[in-house]
Amino acid sequence: MARLLDWEAKERHAPPGVPARPAPLNRRSVGVILAGAVILWALAQAGLFGGEVVNPGGWPLVLRFLRAGLHPERNPAFLRLVFRAALVTLAYAVSGATLSTLFGFVGGVLASEVWWRAVMPSRGGGRRWSGYRTPWLVVRGGLALPRAIHEIIWGLFFVNILGLTPLTAILAIAIPFGAITAKVFSEILDETPRRPLDALLNSGVSPLQALVYGLLPQAFPNLLSYAFYRLECSIRAAAVLGIIGAGGLGYEIFLSLQSLRYEQMWTLFFALFLLSGLTDFWSGLLRRRMGVANRLALNLPAGKRRKIAPPRRDAVVSISLVAAAGLVTFSFWYLRPDFTQLLAPRTTRLLAGVIRDSFPPDFGNGGTGELFALSAQTLAMSILAMSGAGLLGILLSFPAARNVSLPDGGGGWVRRASGMGMLLAVRTLLLVARAIPAPIWALILMFVLFPG
Fold first, then answer.
1. Distances from the Cα of 203 to the Cαs of 78, 124, 199, 210, 395, in angstroms?
2. Which residues of 112-135 are buried (b: 16+ CB within 10 A; e: fewer)?
3. DSSP structure string for 399-423
């Protein structure tokens, strides 16, 4: 450690005008070493250094699966089944995304620092400032639990309470996505310029009115953009919930996979690609028309975002908002969820039984040791998945970028045609990769990988 500090001291006292020689062991190199050690630990924890991982006997099934994509099932009766399943999946996604947006808006306001600063303004002392932080941190901490539980776990929970009903799938999407949306909405509100809000508050306007008239108009385009992104995520979640019997494309994919009818699977996949692709196109079109930041810019501090044109009235935006309202109305009408189930005596009795049986926690025969071992496996899988996703994202981001594949003023028509082909191919690959839910990918990978 002393040697490290000595190197850093030499780096700081380099002669003027001469670039300092970086120390062999500095914060960056230590970080890289630690990251490599964590990845190696995750690989060992996942069992990749011991035992067989790849199942060679599964490659014929993979080839058969890929060949089936060249001639998907086109039977008219099956196509009608796919259409009905796609409607169910879309209705689940739209209904769940609508409720999650409503939950997220309310939770986002309550989880935003700007709201609590307006409600409990500082009056010249640190004690008042710490007072507003208490409810703010309580709300943010409370939102961590629902978003930490996967939607399929919520689905299994509500199946035990409500049964296999449309309300089960809608709530399984709305609750975790609502908590995630609340977190992002709160960050958008906190990063929105506050001068109009402060002016209204200083003039004696109530915090709620000041928020509605001074902050929301500026934040609305980014809030709407993220709401459409959540719709695309809800489509994948609705497909996942089909595995537990909720119906839709996911349920039909699971049935076709069980019977090894790969041609049917690809037809269902194409329907899922179409839903995800149209949603992504619609969201991107709205962002461009409204002049809002893209998804990556939403995660940047307000001062680092690219300056964008102010929102303007646009026919496409108006038509899209009307179409979205119609789609929400159709989805709830098509599914007809019975919200009175939430207040039924049977629901209350079953929910009370679940809560009663949950305490005290049962750690099983293995005790806390087994719990920590399973937690380590989960952490290792998360680290490997995150590392692999980051590496693939970096590699594919260049050919998927328009300014790389189609540079301005560069090359002739052959260069532009090849660049457009590469751009479409990579973006199609990315659409396929993200449209298929993770559990479906896991089932497919079981063809060539041993369980683990």
1. 64, 19, 6, 10, 53
2. bbbbbbbebeeeeeeeeeeebeee
3. HH-HHHHS-TT-S-HHHHHHHHHHH
Q: What is the pLDDT of residue 271?
A: 94
DSSP label at residue 449 = B
Percent helix, strand, coil in the chain, to 5, is 75, 0, 25
How far apart (Å, rounded) are the C-alpha atoms in residues 91 and 210?
A: 35
**Which phi and psi angles does 449 have, rounded to 5°?**
-120, 140
DSSP letter string, 152-176: HHHHHHHHHHH-SSHHHHHHHHHHH
pTM here is: 0.83
The residue ranges of DSSP E strands in 269-379, in sequence order, are none
Q: Is 307 helix (H, G, I), strand (E, B) or coil?
A: coil
Confidence of residue 336 (pLDDT cuts 50, 70, 90): very high
For 109, the 3-state DSSP assignment is: helix
Q: Tokens in use for 436?
A: 């298929």
221 CB contacts (<8 Å, ≥6 apart)? Answer: 290, 291, 292, 311
More confident residue, 384 or 124: 384
Q: Count CA within 13 A, CB hemisphere, residue 15.
A: 2
- Whether the bond between 311 and the residue before it is cis, its omega within 30 degrees of 0, is no
Q: What are phi and psi of 54, to 5 degrees?
A: -95, 135
The residue type of 301 is: P
- The structural domains of the chain, with segments of one domain joined by +, span 2-14+23-51, 73-303+311-350
Q: Which two tokens stand for residue 314?
A: 């646009």
Using the structure block, give the residue that is written with the tokens 């049986």: 357
The token pair at 416 is 């532009």
Distance CA 349, CA 65 (A): 46
Q: 321 versus 176: which is more confidently predicted?
A: 176
**Beta carbons within 10 angstroms of residue 335's beta carbon:** 20
Give me the DSSP letters along 121-161. ---SSHHHHHHHHHHHHHHHHHHHHHHHS-HHHHHHHHHHH
Which CATH superfamily does the domain covering 73-303+311-350 fall into?
A: MetI-like (1.10.3720.10)
